[in-house]
Amino acid sequence: MKKQLIAAASAAALIFSVSACGKDNSTVKISLPDGQEYLKLNIGDEINLGAKAQKDEIINWSCDDSEVASISSDGKLSGMANGIAVITARTESGYDNIGVVVGNGVKGTAAASPNSGAQQVFNGESKITSISLSLNGQTEDETLIRANNDVATFKVNVIPTDCTDPIVFSSSDPTVAEVDAEGTVTPVSRGTVTITATAPNGVNDTFKVFVR
């Protein structure tokens, strides 16, 4: 399991959604401009973030993916490459985090993904602790899929099983196989691709698919 929050769609298709599971009562709050729920930056953009702590404590900034965005010790956020990252402001008493979309929101690409119908969640409040994927009854990597429109849909199991937070799917290479918001994989061309399913708090599972 990885803890990396990954984009499943272009930034134009991103939709903020409120989780139904759990909520962290933080003692620090990041200030977003104009009441935004998440940030959107172009590659090379910079913005100064601020945070307020209830106590007189030092605020430490961090980013979960320095390839996508970087943040300095005083809260200067810079867009580095296409993708989605989580920015965290942490004190000894608590933390707050926000999502930032850089460029088209699809890591590792130079153009918008064709999977434009997917959604992305930025709230970090999910209680999901584990995700496991299966495809065509298989739970191991390297599943063969024929390239002649032989579509297949992932089955997703989460822990706790009663948590209904939305899961976001993404493809590491949409030119090999696309995946939609429901987890349906459509082969495009021969190759190997990694499909990732991500919960709102960043917990995810990956599954390799070979398209022949």
Describe the protein's architecture and organization.
The protein has 212 residues and is mainly beta. Helix content is 0%, strand content 40%. The protein has strands at residues 28-31, 39-41, 46-48, 50-53, 60-63, 69-71, 76-79, 83-90, 95-102, 130-135, 143-145, 152-159, 168-171, 177-179, 184-187, 191-198, 204-211. Strands 2-9-8-5 form a four-stranded mixed beta sheet, with no helix packed on it. A four-stranded antiparallel beta sheet has the order 10-12-15-14, with no helix packed on it. Mean pLDDT is 76; it is low at 1-25 and 111-123.
Largest sheet: 4 strands, mixed
What would the average pLDDT be, to the nearest integer? 76
Q: Name the structural class.
A: mainly beta
Distance between the termini: 26 Å
Give the helices and strands, then pairings:
Layout: E1 28-31, E2 39-41, E3 46-48, E4 50-53, E5 60-63, E6 69-71, E7 76-79, E8 83-90, E9 95-102, E10 130-135, E11 143-145, E12 152-159, E13 168-171, E14 177-179, E15 184-187, E16 191-198, E17 204-211
Parallel strand pairs: 2-9, 11-17
Antiparallel strand pairs: 1-4, 3-7, 5-8, 6-7, 8-9, 10-12, 12-15, 13-16, 14-15, 16-17
Short key terms for the protein model shown above:
mainly beta, 212 residues, 4-stranded mixed beta sheet, single chain
Write a brief structural summary.
The chain is an all-beta fold and about 210 residues long. Helices cover about 0% and strands about 40% of the residues.
